Amino acid sequence: MAENQNAPAVFAKSLKKVFANNKNPALDSVALNGIDLVVPKGGLVSLVGPDGAGKTTFMRLVCGLLIPTSGKLEVFGMNTATDAEAIQKRIAYMPQRFGLYQDLSIKENMDLFANLQGVPEGERKDKYGQLLSMTDLAPFANRLAGKLSGGMKQKLALACALIHDPELLILDEPTAVLTPQETDKLFAILRNMRNAGKAIVIITHKMHEVESLSDRVAVLRKGQYVGDVMTRDTNAEELTNMMVGHPVKLNIERTEPVNPRPRIEVKDLIVRNEEGTTKLDHVSFTANSGEILGIAGIAGSGQKELLEAIAGLQPVDSGSISYIEDDGTHVELIGKAPLTIQNMGVSLSFVPEDRLGMGLVGNMDLSDNMMLRTFRKGHSFFTDRKSPRRIAENVVKELEVATPSLNTPIRRLSGGNVQKVLVGREITSAPKVLLTAYAVRGLDIHSSYTIYNLINNQKKQNVAVVYVGEDLDVLVELCDRILVLCGGKVSGIVPGRGADKREIGMMMTRVGGNEHE
Questions:
Q1: Which residues, in sequence order, are bridge partners of residue 216?
Q2: Which stretches of 389-500 are assigned E, i.e. beta strand?
């Protein structure tokens, strides 16, 4: 099909996508309905919406991976249903989990994607040089992808996505594992691409990124097209109101800790993985009751190993982890069974890439998953502890979990809703220590602030909260103190109030003034 040179990069009109239930048409799932959206050439559009709003479905339609049920969808004037192959040669989609090959080097990964995209051999040397320079990866071209930090992997993913010089770039949560400095560099790259006439669509839950980067913002809610606005004419609160359908307040009320007392004391902790690599190197700190201790660090800096060591799930080479009773008695946790530690009041809520990998059973429904946790008496956001079903009802209500019923198997929920169930269940256990990692990973801004408030309520109830997060703006606003990890070492502990996120970003990549990659 000949291209209409005046056509926008993406044109959607009355777009609808229904996932049919062949056994019972009454159970057909309408993923998108009435989508009207234009992405111009040289435009940078942010696509926002709550979890399950249809953002990923829309992107898969644009890429020709799904066929629209009705309506019109064109990319560069070509029909996505009939011209998918031609369209895919001119676009690039960078999902949250980009398919890098861990056992191949940076250059070998680029070779692989160049082969897949049919980049001529004669053009590769110059193309690789430009991309490696642009992403600051040139000094590491022969390093295996599996040995890269989270930020470097994201840069490599971008280089591979751009290997064939696409005219439309789609990015899904591209800054999730980046430091502020790395985010600035990525945004500079995207702005230069836009200025060169490329079209860019970015999916993100970070409103400050939407405001600083995009020209327009398109909002989806429950598969419906709510509208789009010029970024300069709106703000985070208005966009969130559009996303959830009612007024919301985006505010974290950080109170001063009341009589904080040591609850967890970690001294000279050393943890090595099965290959003998040191993941935690002489880590020492204290977590106090009635306080939120934030943990900052680029992905893979030892956050997971630290929380799992406290919870008894991670073997420890040496050091000490003490649980401090109300009377000041120190109880050594190393060597104790995870269930024993849990019964002492230490609750771990870790949201991994596989959300069903931390204590939720996919084939069990919501109520049954609540029964997997031993509940205790105590004051909490959720007040009823007698019935697992009632607890499930409260979690669904308070965290706005989208589920057909309480009898729905967990595996049938979207990732974000599984996440709400996981975090909500841990909070219902009325812990004395709440260890939470990536509690809002992938959640929309409204759901995120709901969880921030839940965590704050735990602090007010004298719980010692250890919060591992990816968003430095939130860490600075939510936490009383912030411990910064770099390569498994503590590079500093700073007060949350008045903290400079860029200084923290520098600490995340340097220990004692030395850069760590």
A1: 45, 230
A2: 433-437, 464-468, 481-486, 489-495
Mean pLDDT value across residues 79-97: 89
pLDDT score for 430: 76
Type and span of the H or E element at 343? helix 338-343
For residue 323, what are its two tokens? 């649980």
Nearest alpha-carbon partner for 224 in 250, 242, 202: 242
Instruction: Locate the DSSP E strands across 194-240.
Output: 199-203, 216-221, 224-230
- The tokens describing 56, both together, are 């990923």
Residue with tokens 């990732």: 415
* C-alpha 306: how far from chain center: 19
Q: How far apart are CA 103 and CA 204, in angstroms?
A: 29
Which residue reads 């005046």 in tokens? Answer: 6
- Cα dihedral 237, 240, 242, 247, rounded to 10, equals -60
Cα(234)–Cα(208) distance, integer angstroms: 12
Instruction: Please give the pLDDT value at position 378.
Output: 41
Query: Residue holding tokens 């812990």?
Result: 431
- What is the tens place of the pLDDT at every residue in 435-459? 988 888 767 777 788 888 889 989 9
185-233: per-residue pLDDT in tens?
889 999 999 999 999 999 988 888 899 899 999 999 888 999 899 999 9
Q: Does residue 179 contact residue 505 with C-beta atoms inside 8 Å?
A: yes
Burial class from Cβ neighbours inside 10 Å (0-12, 13-18, 19+) for residue 44 reads buried
Query: What pLDDT is recorded for position 517?
Result: 46
Most confident range (mean pLDDT) of 54-68, 140-154, 169-183 is 54-68
User: One-letter amino acid identity for 442?
Assistant: G
3-state secondary structure 51-108: CCCCHHHHHHHHCCCCCCCEEEEEECCEECCCCHHHHHCCEEEECCCCCCCCCCEHHH
Predicted TM-score of the model (pTM): 0.72
Rounded Cα distance, 167 and 42, in Å: 9
Query: Which residue has 């250890």 as its token pair?
Result: 466
Give how far Cα 355 sits from Cα of 137, 302, 490, Å. Answer: 31, 19, 27
Sign of CA dihedral 280, 95, 27, 24: negative
* Per-residue pLDDT tens over the stretch 108-158: 999 999 999 999 999 999 999 999 998 889 999 999 998 887 778 888 999
**How far, in Å, CA of 186 to CA of 155, rounded?**
8
Residue 374 has pLDDT above 50, yes or no: no
- In whole angstroms, give the CA distance from residue 106 to residue 75: 31
Residue 82 tokens, joined = 């009939």
* CA 121 from centre of chain: 36
Would you tell me how many other CB atoms lie within 10 Å of the CB of residue 429?
22
Q: 480 near 257, Cβ under 8 Å?
A: yes
Amino acid letter for position 344: M
